[in-house]
Amino acid sequence: MDLSRWLLLSLVLLAVGVATVSNAPALAQDDSGIERPEDAEMPPNTTTATETSVRTATTETRTYTVVGTGPIGDNVSTLAQYGAVKTHSGHLAEIEMRPRHRQNVSRLPWVESVTRVREPVSPAVAGSGNASSLGVERLHQRGITGADVRVGIIDAGFDPTAANISDAVAGTRRFSEPMSTEHGTAVAEIVSQTAPDASLYLATAITPTNVSASLEYFAARDVDVVVMSAAYPSLNDDGEHILAQPIADARSDGILYVNSAGNFRLQHWEGSFVDTDGDGYHEFTPGDERQCIPSCTIFAQPGRFRAVLDWEREGDGSEYQIGLYDPSVGDQGEIFATSVPAFETADDNRQFMATQLSQRPVDLVIKNTAGPGNDELELYLYDTQMEDPVGRSSIGAPADVAAATSVAAYDRANQQTAAYSSLGPTDNGRLAPTVTGYTNIGVSGGTFAGTSASAPYVAGVAALIEGATAEDRSPRQLNSVLVETADDIGDPGEDVTSGAGVINASAAVAASTPRQLAVDAGVNRTVTSGETVALNGTELTRSTEEELRYSWEQLSGPSVSLTNSTAATPSFVAPSVNSETSLKFRVTVRDVTTDVTSTDTVTMSVTPDRTSPNGSIADYRTGEGTVEIQGLRKGIDDFTSGEIDIALLRQIITEFTS
């Protein structure tokens, strides 16, 4: 694993929690009267800026992630000589120290790298307000609720006393001070909505080291499923970074790890550096060196702006820098903010920008500041969209890890994947996302959107599968069921937009717990000719009928016409018979989700109708001392044995004169 290719930058929570309290201002149309220059020349190749990213004074402390060449536990005391060790897990440790100590720590023989840790961000995704059924209600009615299943949730903070999750919370642990409780609480609420009887374990984590420690915490408590609705914009989303091994270890411990794919489709660009005119600025499209933020017709709004640019060095010393450009200033416009180095090795580099914007026209540019400028670049924006994004390969780490189940977002209102949902594949060509889950889910504070909502929904469905039987299922089995029963959308087969398709909770549970149906066709009965007879088929192992299909057929006896032969309770009219006659019927019930069937038979004995003139022996009393039988009207003593059975005749007369 190439650990040097991982930068611990800002944790990105992948959805705004509740639409009613979104902290992102709406984008305003450009109504200032300022026309954005379309063909102004770029300013000279300079780093002068009026709103630059500011470095922290070296006397202040910063938090760093230390990656060891092996388990770091035995070296914690040595590390503590340089600062306060906050968390350590496996080959990772987190230390708060002065920047001047970073180089000394990086020279320790057991240290692989030392990188800066930054705080989380919450990019806003507007919810559509669609909070309809999650498709799990019928499963709940059947008693499939995630009972005895443990679900771990990793987020930047929780309110475990919140009404909609408090009864489900079985344990909490803080590996970092919480940043916000709203997002994590909403994630937990969606898990509880989907699997209401699952036990929740909540771990507050900000950095990858915190995440690794959280996974160890969950493994020690025999957690079955873990979900994290967050991402770290990765250098190369190929799954080869410092969280790959902890997630693989969690899977080995029997944990299904679920991660949101990210909301970066409209905030991501990657491609080769191109500079056909030789002025040092990258051309995003032929002749266009500017990436409008958020578009070329909308002003950027006041607020925080963050971006990261990374590239693989080819050993030729190429360097690049992000610049923010205002085309409305002067004749040539003005670059008013530039990025600073955030991570650097012999093989890899990254520039990071964090600044505050005022309402103004803003374009992003990339400048080649050293070397030949022949690298593949990757750009992520944290807080806003760009005019010409490249959505492909925008999966956020650690959803890119092979052992993770990555989840895209499905907008039920539009019946398609959400426009912001990150696309695969990973940088090494592996298919991602794994599956797609519902987003825009109603929670206590409003509507929760983004892949942050999709991931806990999928984790909840996994909990339903795990809890449907007494058998423990491996992470591989759970993932396979989710994939194999997903409803394919878009292009046929698995794809980089929706993975295997949209999760089908009912089909997933049915496939993992195939039932042997038991249908009852009812009791054998005796009926009379001309009577309307109702058959009654009942499937004995279910409480609902939505997944069942019935089919009735006649096996023997005089043919009759079955009304509603595909219903549980068809009917027929008993035929005319001369004597008691048997009619046999068979019912077949089929489970449409598993194609399992069950059959049963019932026999109806039909007897002649002795009270109707249309009976087999038409006995009808016509007056005193006479009867009409089979069209004959005679006195009793006038019948002969050749015309009718005398014993039967006397029986009939006795019945009519009694």
Question: Which fold name corresponds to the CATH topology of the largest domain?
Answer: Rossmann fold
Oligomer: single chain
* Residues in helices, as a percent range: 10-25%
Number of domains: 4
Keywords:
disordered N terminus; eight-stranded mixed sheet; 10 helices; 4 domains; Jelly Rolls; Rossmann fold; 658 residues; Immunoglobulin-like; elongated
Describe this structure in words.
The chain has four domains: 24-40 and 48-121 and 266-381, Jelly Rolls (Sandwich), CATH 2.60.120; 137-264 and 394-512, 3-Layer(aba) Sandwich (Rossmann fold), CATH 3.40.50.200; 519-607, Immunoglobulin-like; 620-657, no CATH class. Strands 6, 7, 8, 9, 11, 21, 22 and 23 form an eight-stranded mixed β-sheet that branches. A five-stranded antiparallel β-sheet has the order 12-20-14-18-17, with no helix packed on it. 15% of the residues lie in helices and 29% in strands. It has 658 residues and is α+β, with helices and mostly antiparallel strands. Helix 4 (182-194) runs parallel beside helix 7 (451-467). The longest helix has 17 residues, at 451-467. The protein is elongated. It is built from ten helices and 36 strands.
